[in-house]
Amino acid sequence: MRGYLLDNIKRICQLTLLAVGIFFNPNIFGQDVCTQNLMDARESFADGRFLEVDSLLRNCIKNGFTKVERIEALKILSLTKLYMDEMSEADSLYLKLLLTDPEHQVNELLDPPDLIFLHNSFRTEPIFSWAVGAGINYSFPTIINEDYPFPSTTIKYNDGPAIPMQPKKKYTPLVGYSFTAEMDFVLLKDLYVGIGLSFSKNRYRYSTEYLKSLYTTENTDILYYEAIYIQNLNWFHIPLKLTYQFGKLKFKPYISAGASYDYLLISKRKDLIREKISGEPETKIEQGSSNDTFSKNRNNFSMLFSVGMMYKTNGIDYIVLELSYAQMFNNIANSNERYGDIDTQTDIIFYAIALDSFSLSSFNITLKFLRPFYRPRKIDK
Amino acid sequence: MKLKGFYSIISVLIVFVFSHCDNNESVIPRDEATFIHLYGGEFQDKGIDICALPDGRLAILASTTETPAVIGEEPVRDVVIILTDTAGKSSELYTLGKRTKDESPSSMVYHEGHLYIAGTTDDNNPGDKDFLFMKFSISNGSMTNYLSIGYQGIDETCYDNAVFENVSGENNTTISGIIMVGESDSIDFRSSLDIWVTFEGDSIGRNQLDGVLPNGRTKSVLVESGSFQYTFVAEESDSYTPTGQSIIIASNAFSNGRRSRSKKHLTGFNGFNYADKILSVNSNSAYLVDGYNSTSGLSINSDTAGLFKRQNDINFTSISTIKIDTLDMEVKDIYETIDNGYLLLGTSTNTSTNLNTIKLVKFNFNLNEVLWVQNFGTNQEFDDAGSLIQMKDGKIFFTAAVSFQRGESNTKIALYKTTADGKLDF
After folding, report:
1. What is the DSSP secondary structure assignment for residue B226, as one 8-state letter?
2. I want to staple B153 with a disulfide (CB 3.0 to 4.6 A). Which of A50, B107, B127, B170 is the partner?
3. Are A74 and A92 in contact (CB under 8 A)?
4. pTM for this entry
5. CATH topology classification for B36-418
6. Is the CATH number of domain A2-124 1.10.10?
7. What is the tens place of the pLDDT at every residue in A148-183?
8. Chain A CB within 8 Å of residue B1 CB
């Protein structure tokens, strides 16, 4: 009894859903008619009965086809008009086709030459595209001029041996991240010029070791201090670049090159001093952090190189994976302000900070969502 | 048309970018840069004196300790000599001294390939302080002579030294060497003392200076070129419980290997005056600078810089004095600049925090005007100024002790190179 009741409820629900569907999509029956009309139009076109083609498809094109059917219908109708020497009508219909399917392609082998000619008489490239993305970067300083908080020194204790001490200064790249938004405009076929806005956080690590005691040559255990700082640089970029895309495949590779204006939003540093003695665990002595933006030049320029792969999704959008390299041109260290006030000097001495002149290089991997915008129109001859 | 516009945009972009890029000319080479260089290890390493060598290198006199400072105990110090290369990129560091003995250097002079170091040795027993004489060969990088000079049972502390040449000695001989000045601290009084040693470390002469007993100490000495005379500054107190202390500027001369005092002048402001450095400008005048305390107390926190200028007056009757009220610092060194100003290097103590700042000051004596003040160091309790020198290109080098950890007595030897206006930048 209970199962019977449930079956009835299920049936009522199904009927209700069907009724709702019909109410909101009254063309559901009309679509079947148009589908039949499309099949008939194919036959009429093949038999050369062009006048029938128009009457079969004209109304359904307005509102009765699925998108795929509408594309085929417009294509058949455009060809029909071509064969009937109604060129203006053919252009109008093919334009509707391209508005429906902006990336519509003709098949050079299968499609009639007249249609191919008609297709080529239209601008079928996107006029611009926008993209947003996020990624990670790997940054490392390029040293222009070195500073030596602890100069290379030969230490000699009375008549003992001379012990050479070289500064063990080391920069290590660290992973940062970036966000980007950009627009690309068509210049020529497959060639685009793009402008964007992006934010990046670039990071690197500096470390140096120095002798703890002048009496090291007399000691059996070598003692060192290790000074470390992590530099975080937050940049705002305005890149301008040229991009060349290869082919029309679902996977579309591209290369690009350009330049970028870079503005340093903020520079922060985390410092650490560790005591190192052979055979013993390292001991943390002092730790600090500071905003050292004043010691950097905020305006910079970069050159950019990138390669990428665009993957077309089911619609007209793309998922883009890009690998790029950026090299800043200018010295980031602010030569006039790098020592700052006495607090900055204290940090420099406490943490053995090198005040090298440097620029920044970075590798970036970015994942983007890209949407092209088309505006097909007849090309003026 | 479209291509033309595109190429124009790209051209403008490229020109714009490259016009804003650094090139080799705009990145100034390292040897033009200013810097802070650090030397030494843990505990108390201090930069004390600095001089330029004829080949363009710098020599720095410093001291180091092997053990941490203990309140009430003198650390065991060794002498450190640092020789930099001309660009300051590398250096040779020599630690000199006897392990069980405290060698406390005070000043250094260069003469014909050698550095002559004056200081004080101490066995940490009463009466064991002696003058220290060291001769260091720059070419060999080694100490070639070491002397402890003093009266048995009396402490002698050395503050300064100077080179003299071709002075007539006894029995018609000619002697050359260094004069060291300081104080002799006998059982119940102090007296000033000068000692001279020939370059080879023999022919030692010693004299107590007349007229500065019982409470005097000689702080700086200057041998004026081409003369047998030497001029010195000293401090003199009026009694055992002094309410004031004057500065003495005096001149002595060698005669037949012996020193005889010739001229003396007392100067200073009310309160305690501390002599520090006498500076030769030419053979006719000398300058003295020091901090002084205008109160009757002995607080070191109320130092004010003062300048004393001896005019061209052989009788020492004309001395100009200037009190630089705006400079609350103990002046450690003075240098006449290439543009007739004076550079003062000193240590300023914040009376509320007891923290020190190293100050470099440019002062115009004629205008009685402080032209600029630059602060250095790590703003810690043990920061202390050393000595300065200005090169012909205007760059200023000075050495100091800078604290390396907050609240600790650990200091390192610092060598600063600044621009002519005392700035740390390119």
Report:
1. T
2. B127
3. no
4. 0.80
5. Methylamine Dehydrogenase; Chain H (2.130.10)
6. no
7. 788 888 888 887 888 888 778 899 999 999 999 999
8. no
